[in-house]
Give the backbone structure.
Amino acid sequence: MTDTDKDRLFVTALARGLDVLSAFDGTAARMTNLQLASRTGLPKSTVSRLTYTLTQLGYLNAVDNGYTLGFRVLALAAAQLNRFELRTLAAPLMREFADRHQVSCSLATDDGVEMVYLECTRSSARVTVQLSVGSHVPMTRTAIGRAWLAGLEAAERDRVFARLGQHYGEAWPAEAARIETALAQYRQRGFTSSYGDYDDEVVAVGVPIAPMLQGQPKLAINASSPAYQISQERMEQDIAPDLVALADRLSGRA
């Protein structure tokens, strides 16, 4: 029996409905009940009732024997993104940075044990890292996730570590060791990195962005590129210092 099974305030039907919506992670725009059942682990009959209800409420659209996210979900997403006013300020600076260095530049915050992208810009390079707003990546294996962790106060980081430890279970000590290495790198050099840790073909550096006002969400920014286009040396010596300067500017420190 899980903790939620014992929690009388926990509404299982609502949680299952949210699981169905969360299954639309950007990898497939349209999904059938069978695909949703496979992704959520719920019985197909349960999924069928949930998709019917969500469609009636406007959270899903019925399209070609499948479903896409409805406008009510998009309205919720837009309302949430509006909290991140920094996106508006950052976007043109990120575009200029991406074009100057021929990289992808992204802004993200945490979403449980992952990072969710809030803004993504790509250079004019023929091949770039293809991520978009709403994409999720692991917190522990990516430069942007490690940078976000590096920007936390110790007490808050401990709380996140507890959450990560519960998620990873027996694999947590190895993940924790990677994070400690990244935190040491940040203390020494002002940025974090990931060279093939998440994707064998991607190199990236990341920097935390300090909130300018109390209560604002904590963010991180990264620069990433296919590994064959940019060397680790160039990423650290040329691109990372400029990314630190950009993060300082967005944090109001420059």
In short: The chain has a mean pLDDT of 87.
